[in-house]
Amino acid sequence: MKKRFWLGLILAINSTIAQAAPSPCEEVTHNLQILPCAESAWAGAQQKTDAALVSLKSRIRKEYIADPSLGARLINRIDQAQQLWGESVEADCGVEAFEIEEGAQAHQVVFLHCSTKRYEERAAYLDHLLAI
């Protein structure tokens, strides 16, 4: 009985917290809300990508426990690919936002939107590798 009480209390608190902190993208009604929304979406996509990368490396360490040096080489290759991918995102999204004055909010929003899309694609790709 006590377990049900505490579980119910925790769920109620979590629900209240979730309602108290709405997403900056929930009701965008003014252009000043666009940048915080873009930043929030980008941060979420980046977290997904980081989590997928951590999961992939963890799986590699487990699968290559019999040959850790081979696993380390694979992880090193993944790190190199991740670095090059990050440089590609910077370059591509810089091209996409090029015609907008650098430093302007619109430039940041376009760059973040492009980056968010690329991070989401990267997370899906890393999840695909994890499933192989």
From TrEMBL:
Gene3D superfamilies named among the record's database cross-references: 1.20.1270.180
Entries under Pfam families matching the protein: LprI
Domain Lysozyme inhibitor LprI-like N-terminal: 32-126
Keywords: Signal
Tagged with keyword Signal: yes
InterPro entries: LprI-like_N
Signal peptide, first to last residue: 1-20
Name under which the protein is recorded: DUF1311 domain-containing protein
